[in-house]
Design brief:
By secondary structure, the protein is mainly alpha-helical. The chain has 18 helices and 8 strands. It starts with 41 loop residues before the first helix and ends in a 13-residue tail after the last helix.
Length: 513
């Protein structure tokens, strides 16, 4: 029987962050614990830390809508649907999401609720008052700082300038906090939190605690932070973090004929390739993942699912399927997506990375969500080599990934641009449907020194590559409109409720909304 840390505890840890979060104060979680004088023993602090992982799991449930669905990897496939959920997803994917979109508001609140949870526990691990064993105290602090740094990394990439909250605050104080610039959030929260997490979090855990953040997870996300910022010095810092993982961590690529499939096998969770994953436990405990039911082909009934309703959301685009089809020997293809032949004339693609044949309760799968794995690190390292003058050796790292996929090796690159093109193409296939493509697109603005690059790629995908065969046929849903494909809309809008309920200051909305 495999073991994992299970996120059983729903904890209310003090005041929520921003003024419009006051609604949450009337909710009654399963276990409501007051923060006052509670986190005063190692056991209680550990409960608080695990509660923060539980908060991360809730956030992860819908994150694909704001990352993968907005990229060129997936789409809302139901061309003729008038269902509100499908129209909303089409609007998200087409960059015309409204600031009043309820799911965006909920996603935002869940992140800030968990930041509040983290901030409530942190004061109890600042010294050895409540946790006399330094190694244990450092572990808890490292885990909490990793989670907070990771949350702010996601927030700044999706929403831009952000509210800086590093302690528990009440509604009145929250109304006085302005949005801080992205560089300020990076310098004051994200980088310091992740650097300290890399120093304090353990290098590994026992089997019962697998899934908790390690120093390698902190180093990996920190490297992505530096690469997102770009510039020679940041790339140098990122390279150092990646080299530490490549040379000193216990992680490695899985090998063998079925190695790629084994990464995602629910019987092989937290295998050596996985550096950090959001953990779920299927069954009737309310701690399972929704991904298999959410992505299973719409209309397939119980053909794929024992329970629940296959929703068919987040469907592979024609473009990415064609990229896989170019090479029939790619071992990753069937793991990433499959085709359901609904009838002799109807073929429906679906994401197959999250299949769970053991699911016994609706939206309660066993699948973890992998946030960071070793193949990602290898390709990030190749990406830096492409930019720092070492592009002629970057192919060696790309070939490690291609060889496992059963593909021919590529030859040395002759330019930075050629190397970047090949590396991003390989990342797209290797990490398909893992919520990585969106962040790759954002980094391209810096790596190609072209702020329009991400939206150029998305416009080309939508209005050229997939337009005639797919996007132009939406009915009665409005097809994508090119006027919304502008670089300002790479950022999501700030939820309108956050702006409307604040009577202390004017909170600026993101441009173009």
């Amino acid at each position: 029987m495999k073991t994992k840390i299970y996120y059983f505890i729903s904890i209310l840890l003090g005041g929520f962050i921003l003024s419009s979060c006051e609604d949450f104060l009337t909710e009654q979680p399963e276990s409501v614990l007051t923060q006052i004088d509670f986190y005063t023993t190692p056991t209680r602090i550990n409960q608080g830390v695990i509660g923060c992982y539980a908060g991360l799991a809730k956030i992860q449930n819908d994150e694909w809508m704001y990352t993968e669905l907005r990229s060129d990897n997936t789409c809302q496939f139901e061309l003729g649907s008038s269902a509100t959920a499908r129209i909303d997803q089409t609007d998200i994917a087409s960059f015309r999401i409204s600031p009043t979109f309820p799911h965006l508001r909920d996603y935002w609140y869940l992140i800030f609720q968990n930041i509040s949870n983290i901030n409530a526990v942190l004061p109890s691990v600042k010294d050895n008052t409540y946790v006399p064993i330094e190694e244990q105290r450092a572990q808890y602090e490292g885990e909490l700082l990793f989670l907070r740094g990771y949350h702010y990394y996601i927030l700044t990439n999706l929403f831009g300038d952000m509210f800086k909250v590093t302690k528990v605050i009440g509604p009145n104080e929250a109304k006085k906090i302005p949005r801080s610039s992205v560089p300020e959030i990076y310098n004051d929260i994200i980088i310091p939190d992740l650097k300290k997490a890399a120093l304090e979090a353990p290098a590994s855990y026992s089997a019962n605690d697998k899934g908790r953040a390690t120093k390698w997870a902190a180093k990996g996300i920190l490297a992505k932070v530096y690469m997102t910022l770009g510039g020679d010095e940041n790339l140098r810092l990122a390279k150092k973090e990646l080299e530490d993982i490549l040379t000193a961590s216990p992680h490695y690529l899985l090998t063998g004929n079925n190695a790629y499939a084994d990464i995602f096998n629910i019987e092989n969770e937290m295998n050596p390739e996985i550096i950090f994953a959001v953990r779920y436990k299927g069954g009737g405990l309310g701690t399972g993942s929704p991904f298999w039911e959410t992505f299973a082909p719409n209309g397939s009934g119980n053909l794929f699912l024992k329970v629940g309703t296959p929703l068919g959301y987040n469907t592979p685009t024609y473009e990415i399927r064609n990229l896989f089809e170019v090479n029939q020997n790619d071992k990753r293809r069937d793991v990433c997506y499959r085709i359901w032949e609904k009838s002799p004339t109807v073929s429906i693609p679906y994401i197959s990375k999250y299949i769970d044949p053991t699911m016994t309760h609706s939206l309660q799968g066993e699948n973890d969500w992998i946030v960071l794995r070793y193949a990602d690190i290898i390709l990030l390292y190749a990406e830096i080599l492409a930019q720092d003058g070492n592009y002629t050796i970057a192919h060696n790292y790309v070939n490690q990934i291609r060889s496992r996929a059963g593909l021919d090796e590529i030859q040395p690159f002759s330019s930075k641009e050629e190397a970047l093109d090949a590396i991003y193409a390989e990342r797209r296939l290797e990490l398909a449907f893992e919520n990585q493509r969106w962040f790759d697109l954002l980094r391209m603005a810096k790596s190609y020194n072209n702020p329009d690059k991400p939206m150029e790629i998305l416009r080309r995908h939508t209005f050229e590559t997939d337009w005639e065969i797919f996007y132009s046929q939406y009915n009665p849903i409005i097809p994508p409109e090119e006027r919304f494909y502008i670089k300002e809309r790479l950022l999501l809008p700030i939820p309108q409720s956050e702006i409307d309920t604040n009577n202390e200051m004017i909170i600026p909305q993101n441009p173009s909304y």
